[in-house]
Amino acid sequence: MQQGPPKFGVGDYVQRVNQPELAGIVREHRWDGQVESWNYLVQFGAQLRAVPEEALEVVSIVQSPWGAFELSIAYMMSLRVFFQQSSLKP
Hints:
Helix content: 10-25%
Oligomer: single chain
Strand content: 25-35%
């Protein structure tokens, strides 16, 4: 696979996909040739953690209470669909 440009740059404000309450700043990005993807050194508070690109997303900044409400409804609906699909018997 060919090395593409990194999705996030140094100084970008990102959050973990599986922990949106954990937001941090990208300090460095490195290409990992073994798994052929970008890894990022992200500063979460006082800690630097190495995080793969697929585990990060840009922080969603909400401008109004209505925006936060819309995001929470979308999140709850996606959880409901996930749990309904996971509870179906094979």
